[in-house]
């Protein structure tokens, strides 16, 4: 419980005040190294992009100058949480109207209106007026039936739509949306289709949608047989690729002619989704396919302990949810729980150290490849170990997101309001961290 001292709390409050009141000239105690570095980077941002890349390839992250957790410090956990709670309301009010600027023809969870729908559902999960607003954001009448996953396809808005309609008590509409979601499964289950298996665009992303609906709607609309068929399609695909290309690992997956390993496009994300559906896996699946594949992945680590983005990549430069150690961490904590092997927890904790050291990314505060996504690693470790060091670290990364956002308001990402690239991501984190034992990386952890 003892991990936040009074100075840390005061500093946090001042920094957040700067963020929520951009006209304030208040200088926080801690506008030290990391802020000086962000100013340097802001300057670099004005250079042509290749020059920035050339400079930042050496150092893709800011040096973490935060004091690490110490059990000897006085506990202010409750006060800190209440402070975050009051500030998130303030931030919400100053930001929510800007979501109206999102492109209305982009309805994805990743960068479109359904991501804002998910954020609003997080804030007020059962309030009728809010549920009606969420439903409008899903654009359920405009879906184009061209992708199948939760984050980037129709399955995202459809599955959120099922939950919203169910909560509104509209049984007929709920049933129609369930049928539409199930219809997408025809292509997902077709082994002759060109649908990949990875999480962002492939079968694993469809599997998430189905599990997400079943977790939130009772009685569960999708039966065991349907879920097992999706899992078998993913396993058959992995075995076929591995055999055809003579890999010495039971499962291998290809996307865009590369063998990606990370959470968004690679094997670790696919295996994590499969392990979240553990009750639908046989002992044989677990012990002859999944466990040996995890062991193979452990052998691919760099000397630093970080993971490559794909096989054959020897550049140890990504520490973000979509590529590298942060995305692997979820597979490892889940593998630890499933197989009861302490080695997996040990490697997950090593991933946490890498994120603490190298996770304050120059790319910014996004969920997908930024600091708010990396903050979720510590929440996952906190839930797994109950060690408050990880909660402390998650709070420090959240603090940094707020500060960083102010420093870089003039250099927004391509979709600056969106859930996975923009400011909706850190807002989601601020809401989630108030109940840290229940926090889940949106659209990825069930
Ligand atoms: Zn990314």
TrEMBL record:
Gene Ontology CC: plasma membrane
Biological process annotations from GO: carbohydrate metabolic process; peptide modification
Gene3D superfamilies (alphabetical): 1.50.10.10
Keyword annotations from UniProtKB, A to Z: Metal-binding, Zinc
Keyword Plastid: no
Domain of life: Eukaryota
SMART domains in the cross-refs: LANC_like
Gene Ontology molecular function terms on file: metal ion binding
Record: residues binding Zn(2+): 322, 368-369
The family this protein is said to belong to: Belongs to the LanC-like protein family.
Protein name: LanC-like protein 2
Species, as recorded: Phaedon cochleariae (Mustard beetle)
């Amino acid at each position: 419980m003892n991990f936040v001292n009074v100075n840390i709390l005061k500093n946090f409050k001042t920094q957040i005040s700067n963020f929520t009141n951009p006209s304030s000239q208040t200088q926080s105690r801690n506008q030290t190294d990391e802020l000086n570095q962000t100013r340097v980077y802001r300057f670099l941002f004005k250079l042509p992009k290749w020059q920035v890349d050339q400079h930042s390839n050496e150092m893709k992250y800011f040096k973490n100058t935060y004091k690490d957790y110490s059990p000897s410090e006085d506990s202010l956990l409750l006060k800190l949480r209440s402070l975050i709670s009051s500030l998130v309301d303030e931030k919400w009010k100053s930001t929510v109207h800007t979501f109206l600027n999102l492109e209305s023809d982009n309805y994805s969870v990743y960068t479109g209106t359904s991501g804002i729908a998910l954020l609003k559902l997080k804030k007020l999960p059962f309030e009728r007026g809010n549920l009606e607003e969420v439903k409008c954001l899903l654009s359920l009448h405009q879906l184009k039936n061209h992708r199948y996953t939760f984050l980037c396809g129709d399955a995202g808005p459809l599955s959120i739509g099922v939950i919203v309609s169910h909560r509104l008590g509209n049984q007929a509409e709920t049933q129609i949306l369930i049928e539409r979601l199930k219809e997408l499964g025809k292509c997902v289950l077709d082994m002759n289709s060109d649908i990949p298996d990875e999480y962002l665009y492939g079968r694993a992303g469809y599997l998430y949608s189905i599990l997400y609906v079943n977790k939130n709607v009772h009685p569960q609309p999708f039966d065991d047989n349907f879920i097992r068929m999706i899992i078998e399609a993913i396993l058959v695909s992995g075995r076929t690729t591995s055999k055809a290309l003579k890999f010495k690992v039971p499962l291998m997956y290809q996307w865009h002619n590369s063998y990606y390993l990370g959470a968004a496009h690679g094997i670790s994300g696919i295996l994590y989704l499969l392990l979240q559906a553990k009750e639908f896996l046989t002992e044989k699946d677990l012990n002859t396919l999944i466990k040996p594949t995890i062991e193979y992945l452990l052998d691919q680590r760099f000397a630093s302990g970080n993971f490559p983005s794909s096989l054959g990549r020897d550049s140890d430069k990504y520490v973000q949810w979509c590529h590298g150690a942060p995305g692997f961490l979820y597979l490892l904590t889940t593998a630890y729980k499933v197989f009861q092997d302490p080695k997996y927890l040990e490697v997950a904790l090593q991933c946490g150290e890498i994120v603490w050291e190298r996770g304050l990314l120059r790319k910014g505060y996004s969920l997908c490849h930024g600091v708010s996504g990396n903050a979720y690693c510590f929440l996952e470790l906190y839930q797994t170990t109950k060690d408050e060091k990880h909660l402390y670290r998650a709070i420090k990364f959240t603090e940094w997101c707020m500060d960083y956002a102010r420093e870089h308001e003039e250099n927004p990402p391509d979709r600056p309001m969106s859930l996975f690239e923009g400011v909706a991501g850190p807002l989601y984190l601020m809401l989630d961290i108030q109940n840290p034992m229940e926090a889940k990386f949106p659209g990825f952890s069930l």
